Structures are given as C-alpha cells and as structure tokens.
Amino acid sequence: MLASALRKLTPKFVLRAYHRALAQLAAAWYGHPSGQLFVIGVTGTSGKSTTVQFLGRILEHAGATVGWTSTAGFKVAGDEWINDKKMTMLGRFQTQRLLRRMADAGCTHAIVETSSQGVAQSRHVGINYDVAVFTNLTPEHIEAHGGFENYKAAKGAFFAHVGASQRKPAARLNGRVLSGALPSSPAAAPRPSDDRELAPATRPETVPKTFVVNVDDPHAPYFLSFPADRRYGYGLEGKKGPEPAYRLLYAPVIATDIGLSAEGSTFRIDGRTMHLKPIGLFNVYNALAAATAAHAAGLSWDAIASGVDALASVPGRLEFVRAGQPFEVVVDYAYEPASLQACYDALDVVDRRRLIHVLGSAGGGRDVARRSVLGGMAARQADVVIVTNEDPYDDDPQLIINQVADGAAAAGRKDGVDLFRIPDRQDAIDQAVAMARPGDLVLVTGKGNEPVMAVAGGKTVAWDDRDAVRRALVKRNKGEGRG
C-alpha cells in the first residue's frame, strides 16, 4: 500500500528515470548477458506466447540451443517450467538473471516476450535485442496505459529501442548465425528464396537489427517506419497489406494455399508446404511469424519447413483435454475480445452439436469495459454460457461475474436456462462437463495453463484449468457432477 501511494505521488519523469536506471543496473550486475546471445523479442496483443514457443521449437529443431521467457513459461536450454508469476515480462533483475542463466547454459538464442507494460516500465532496457517481432495490435490494457495511442506507443518504443541498440560483433555470440546473408540495408534485404550459405569471408562482422512485422495488421506501417537494418513483412495471400510506399521497406514473406481443418493446417512459403498440427488461422499467423523470425535468424526455408512440421500444440492454447469422454473439452488462454474471436473461429472446423462456454474476466481494474463485451460474444457464439471467477485480484468477484453475464443476458441468454452465474470455477467447470452430451464441445477460456489464480491481497492460489477439467470428468463418470 505504501509503495503504491509513493508511486502515485512521484512525478512520472522521476519514475521513468528510476526504472531505466534500475534496468541498466540489472544488466550490468549480471554482466550484460544479452550481448552473448542472439536475442529475439516478440510483442503484440495476442499470439505472443505461442509465437515464442513455435520459434523456439523451430530453432531447436535446426540444432540451436534456446532459452525463452513468456507468459506461458520459461526455458533455459534443457530446463523448462511454467510461468507462475502472473507477469508476461518479469522484473529487470529476474529477466537479466534468466538471460545470464541462458548464456551460461550455452544457449545460442534467447526469445523474450516483450509486453507494452514491461516497456512502459523500462524492463526492456539493458536487453540488446537483434530481432523485433510484431504479431498484431488490438485494444487491450487501455486503462493501464491511459488510452490506445499510449498502448501503441509503448510497442513502438520497443521497436525504436531495438533499431537503436548497439550492433553486436557476430564473433562474440555464444552460437553462430545459422546461415544466410545478413545485409546491412533494407534495400539489400533478401527475398524469401535467398537461402544461400555465404562463405565465412563474406559474413557480416556485426549482427543487423531486424524487424519482423505482420503486414496484414492495419498498424504495420507504424512499426515499419522505425529505423532498422532489415525488415521482413509476413502475411497471407490475398490480404490488402500496407500502402505501396511501405512495401519498399520490407522483404515479403507471404503464405499461400492456406488449408484449415480439424486435423491441422497447411500453407506454402516459397514453394515449400508447411504442415501445422495446431488448428486455426491464428496459429497459421503465429507459425508464420515464428518462421519469418527464424529466417531472419538465418535458417533456410527447408529447415524451417521441417521445424514447422514438428510443432505441437502449446500447452493451454487450444489444448484438448481427452479422457475417453464422448465430447470434446478445450482449454484456451483467450481473455480479450480479439483473441476470443480467434478461438471461436479456430473451433469452427471442429464438428459439434452444442458449444458450452465457461468464461470470466480478470479483476484488478483490467479493462472493465470488455467484460460485457465478452459476455455478449459468448452469448452469440455458444449455446450455453457459464460465467465464473477468473483472476479477481482485489475486485468483487460477483460484480465481475455479473458484468460479464449481464452482457450475455443482453444478447438473449436467460438465467437458469442457457446462462449460469457460478462463482466457484471448479463448480462451473463441473456443471459444463456434467451437462455435456455426446458430440458437444466444452470450451473453458481465460487461464489456459496458468498454474495459479490471483485473489485479494496480492495472493495467489494453486489452479490449473486442465486439472479442473480432469476432476470434473472423474466426477461425471462417478455420477457426482451437476445435471
């Protein structure tokens, strides 16, 4: 409480200077570990964690030793664990300590999920990134940033930071740049088919600063406008893309022949067919972002195609929980309107009779306006809506539930018929599983593989939606679930 009060009383310019100084101190304390690694930062509204893991797996498949830090989890070479911190981007000392562990463990590449709130607090300062990846931008964290433009500007500050960072001598990296030309000017940026291995004498002495931007996003021109040595723009065939003037800034990586099914997706890049097991168009975008970043790191398209083929679903992201039940249960992290819509769209390829959706919304003052929007979306997409607790923090859980459920009621759902307000999340999942019929699909969103729930007083309690689903399935089999 005292720290919070002091923050409110301290002038913003003083806080900014404090955060930057602390970040620089953290980097110095741990010996500037990012200088020894090929560092890729991933930012955007949604898809960041999946892109981080897809990219890491592709790099590993090609022989790199990888570390990462993301909303979903952490990795240092062979060690991997779930993120239980309720933070996308850790504090400055924690992040630098992880980077030091990666460097000491022999990692060649580090991937850092870089959040707008982390940038606003200078947690990215002291990290020498080589590649910045932009996934997409939709209204999110607006209240925390004081408006959408501030949110966008925080993402932009990250790109400005990457472009202005000191170029690393390639010889100092733990690992080598895997393959391919690394030109120093946008005009010389290779087209996707340029995978030629350069002779050692022609390799660059420094690692160029590179941007990887989703050019199907309407905000792409903003991110392409920051100075960089190279820029890649990825997208899908048939999309409008940015205005012609901006197309001169980047090498295009455009996926063609998109195929979506319940068994996975396919797409082609530079004549190579990629087979992606995780379903949904948004996962095609995530894989495309990861593939383009891997190419920016030096991988050939043949190596990338092999890596994409080997990708598995990311835990807690459209994860199917199967225990022999005659219906499907899917757990997903989606908690804001754009990602929730992408989740609905992805599940359109799954045959089902009814959709039963369990959802809630976070507390802590997080984007209160979206609560009724989420309820309305669920009412329009699902046959049964069950609203429950998610991460209330210090907010009144029942108030949050009512705000979401009232949105569903306004869209036509009726309490006690096809709309239920159940505060206990386990009870809510129990009810969804108990009422499911053969051929139905139960969707549980908002937490994914998060191992804790944030409650009042800054505390957390152990929680995992997937375990809750498994408990509910056991109760159903024993005849103990609700009808």
Describe, in plain words, how this protein is organized in 3D.
With about 475 residues, this protein is of the alpha/beta class. Helices cover about 35% and strands about 20% of the residues. The strands form four sheets. It has an eleven-stranded mixed beta sheet, with helices on both faces. A six-stranded mixed beta sheet has the order 14-15-19-16-17-18, sandwiched between helices. Strands 7-8 form a two-stranded antiparallel sheet. Helix 3 packs across helix 10, helix 3 packs across helix 11 and helix 10 packs antiparallel against helix 11. About 5% of the residues have low confidence.
Topology (SSEs and partners):
Elements lengths: L1 H8 L2 H18 L8 E6 L4 H14 L4 E4 L3 E4 L2 E4 L9 H13 L4 E5 L2 H5 L10 E4 L7 H4 L2 H17 L3 E2 L36 E2 L2 E5 L5 H5 L5 E7 L7 H4 L3 E11 L2 E6 L2 E5 L4 H16 L4 H9 L9 E2 L7 E5 L4 H11 L7 E5 L10 H12 L2 E4 L9 H14 L8 E3 L3 H11 L5 E5 L6 E3 L5 E3 L2 H13 L6
Parallel strand pairs: 1-5, 1-6, 2-5, 6-9, 9-10, 10-11, 15-19, 16-17, 16-19, 17-18
Antiparallel strand pairs: 2-3, 3-4, 7-8, 11-12, 12-13, 14-15, 20-21
Helix pairs in contact: 2-4, 3-10, 3-11, 10-11, 12-13, 13-14, 15-16
